[in-house]
């Protein structure tokens, strides 16, 4: 199976490293995953016989650029999608929650060119879910996006496949590791929000501009994706009631603890309503996971409650989810 | 898709009730699941146009028997497998961890007659895993057994599909709800093992003869199935070091709590070794789930730790797992 990776930041390089370092074992178990193109804003490298990924990664990490030795002219991502022969586009450019671009265009152009798509990109899915899914169907290609929610934590495919036959009545969970880290820190060390945030930034768990995480937009985008993909709704970010964690104090956490609760930033879908807000969670609840962990609880008619816990971010962790989608497609080609 | 249910106890009837009560919704989403035969030790009912499941369940629950109005002669399960036209055998006779029978024969005879098999029966899988899997492959039929471990909790298919591409380095978990109920009760109410066991029996969580649960054999059978199916080992129950929970005292639980731990009966597969024994688990670990819940933690190379929590038993819960396997097969026929 021939793959093109569009976007070569932490996630794209993480996937490339995994495909390179596990090449032999993956080939034995599932067949070959041949990366024939890698591109980002800095350029594109293409080799229809399969790129030397080790070299591509090294050059990118040394020079900051993708340099193509073979082609006479510069190829844009859209050129790659239109002109190069491959089976699956892996779309992992940075998420944009306002426009969904450039990922949306890359994805639609891939469908049009009969390429299956695997993505880790929340933006286009949170904004244009229905359009994208219908477009994939129209062009008879697969569209998989496990990595958009919960990183390595199985969630979308788990609900749609392992819980197939169940009606999913509600989903609630911690879908953002940064806020969980901050709240865990505030609870354990009785420090205030600003102090915990600063440490999260120093450790690389929070961005310099932490708003998308701490104000709840990141979680909102994820529950929109879950609502649409798992529960068959047709929601967008503007349908989510969002409240972040900036006003949570160590005193509030202390008082909650005294009554047998903790406070977590929870994303919830229930009775057609989407909410992101700090909620009281019983200390003994499976939702009370610590540090940067993510967790999701499904309420279903047959299986009742099913909970899954995992790492919501990280290069290898996200690669794990992308790879499971690539393998799923590989088995069907 | 035509289905025969072999075994009509709690699990078989639970599946029949689900197929009957969700008939319309399942048909819309996945197509038809037509049950053409149901049999157990008391007899067999057959209708190649599809049984009236509501009636079959009612008669069985009223008379204790399966009564066939259509056929002149009594059909045994093997007669049904050999003579009736259907696609999938659902084997849900009682588990026998010493011989694996009669399930093993039902499963092998199904393969021979080109029937796919879905089972909730631990016995044959814990004793003859390799033989069964190879036999299914030889006859080119599907063999699915999600319901054998962890009830409604997704575990086998989760590891093989959602975590495909990962190397599973270790698995540990609470795979028996009865022992978890007893230990939770002892911990919370400071009662001894016998008292907690008695209450579990009164509530129907433990059998009159509780040995398979409390002495660890049930958990051992399940980790054998996980070791073979997920980690590609070739183990049998005799390869498991087994220790039960009879010697755990409320004092031991109290002391563990004081140090930040609890005690759980854990099944573990690590470095080719299979162990079932009471282990100290940090109070904050995702493995510290309460009551009758089951939990499993996978340690993997890419996703790192992934934890899943769910209900390990119950008629509808087991039906959920069987149904996910039936749907999986339906999609491939």
UniProtKB/TrEMBL annotation, chains A, B:
<dbReference type="Pfam" id="PF03447">
    <property type="entry name" value="NAD_binding_3"/>
</dbReference>
<keyword id="KW-0560">Oxidoreductase</keyword>
<dbReference type="GO" id="GO:0009086">
    <property type="term" value="P:methionine biosynthetic process"/>
</dbReference>
<protein>
    <recommendedName>
        <fullName>Homoserine dehydrogenase</fullName>
        <ecNumber>1.1.1.3</ecNumber>
    </recommendedName>
</protein>
<dbReference type="InterPro" id="IPR005106">
    <property type="entry name" value="Asp/hSer_DH_NAD-bd"/>
</dbReference>
<keyword id="KW-0486">Methionine biosynthesis</keyword>
<keyword id="KW-0521">NADP</keyword>
<feature type="active site" description="Proton donor">
    <location>
        <position position="222"/>
    </location>
</feature>
<feature type="domain" description="Homoserine dehydrogenase catalytic">
    <location>
        <begin position="154"/>
        <end position="327"/>
    </location>
</feature>
<keyword id="KW-0791">Threonine biosynthesis</keyword>
<feature type="domain" description="Aspartate/homoserine dehydrogenase NAD-binding">
    <location>
        <begin position="7"/>
        <end position="146"/>
    </location>
</feature>
<dbReference type="Pfam" id="PF00742">
    <property type="entry name" value="Homoserine_dh"/>
</dbReference>
<feature type="binding site">
    <location>
        <position position="207"/>
    </location>
    <ligand>
        <name>L-homoserine</name>
    </ligand>
</feature>
<dbReference type="InterPro" id="IPR022697">
    <property type="entry name" value="HDH_short"/>
</dbReference>
<dbReference type="InterPro" id="IPR001342">
    <property type="entry name" value="HDH_cat"/>
</dbReference>
<feature type="binding site">
    <location>
        <begin position="7"/>
        <end position="12"/>
    </location>
    <ligand>
        <name>NADP(+)</name>
    </ligand>
</feature>
<dbReference type="GO" id="GO:0009088">
    <property type="term" value="P:threonine biosynthetic process"/>
</dbReference>
<dbReference type="GO" id="GO:0004412">
    <property type="term" value="F:homoserine dehydrogenase activity"/>
</dbReference>
<comment type="pathway">
    <text>Amino-acid biosynthesis; L-methionine biosynthesis via de novo pathway; L-homoserine from L-aspartate: step 3/3.</text>
</comment>
<keyword id="KW-0028">Amino-acid biosynthesis</keyword>
<comment type="similarity">
    <text>Belongs to the homoserine dehydrogenase family.</text>
</comment>
<dbReference type="InterPro" id="IPR019811">
    <property type="entry name" value="HDH_CS"/>
</dbReference>
<dbReference type="InterPro" id="IPR036291">
    <property type="entry name" value="NAD(P)-bd_dom_sf"/>
</dbReference>
<dbReference type="GO" id="GO:0050661">
    <property type="term" value="F:NADP binding"/>
</dbReference>
<comment type="pathway">
    <text>Amino-acid biosynthesis; L-threonine biosynthesis; L-threonine from L-aspartate: step 3/5.</text>
</comment>
<feature type="binding site">
    <location>
        <position position="122"/>
    </location>
    <ligand>
        <name>NADPH</name>
    </ligand>
</feature>
């Amino acid at each position: 199976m021939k793959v093109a990776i569009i976007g070569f930041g932490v996630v794209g390089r993480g996937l490339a490293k995994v495909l390179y370092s596990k090449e032999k074992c993956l080939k034995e178990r599932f067949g070959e995953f041949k990366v024939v193109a890698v591109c980002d804003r800095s350029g594109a490298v293409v080799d229809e016989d399969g790129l030397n990924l080790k070299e591509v990664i090294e050059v990118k990490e040394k020079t900051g650029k993708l340099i193509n030795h073979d082609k006479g002219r510069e190829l844009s991502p859209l050129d790659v999608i239109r002109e190069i022969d491959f089976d699956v586009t892996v779309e992992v450019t940075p998420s944009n929650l306002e426009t969904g671009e450039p990922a949306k265009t890359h994805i639609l152009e891939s469908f049009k060119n009969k390429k299956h798509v695997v993505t880790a990109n929340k933006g286009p899915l949170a904004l244009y879910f229905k359009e994208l899914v219908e477009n994939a169907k129209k062009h008879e290609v697969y569209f998989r996006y496990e990595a958009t929610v919960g990183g390595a934590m199985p969630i979308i495919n788990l609900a749609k496949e392992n819980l197939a036959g169940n009606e999913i009545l509600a989903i609630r969970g911690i879908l953002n590791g940064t806020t969980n880290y901050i709240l865990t820190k505030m609870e354990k060390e009785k420090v205030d929000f600003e102090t915990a945030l600063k440490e999260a930034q120093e450790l690389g768990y929070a961005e310099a501009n932490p708003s998308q995480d701490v104000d709840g937009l990141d979680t909102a985008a994820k529950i929109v994706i879950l609502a649409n993909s798992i529960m068959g709704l047709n929601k967008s970010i503007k349908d989510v009631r969002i409240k972040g964690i900036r006003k949570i104090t160590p005193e509030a956490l202390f008082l909650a603890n005294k009554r047998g609760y903790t406070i977590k930033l929870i994303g919830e879908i229930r009775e057609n309503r989407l909410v992101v807000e700090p909620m009281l969670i019983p200390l003994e609840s499976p939702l009370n996971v610590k540090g940067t962990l993510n967790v999701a609880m499904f309420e279903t008619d047959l299986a009742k409650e099913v909970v899954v816990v995992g790492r919501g971010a990280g290069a290898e962790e996200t690669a794990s989810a992308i790879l499971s989608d690539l393998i799923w497609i590989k088995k069907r080609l």
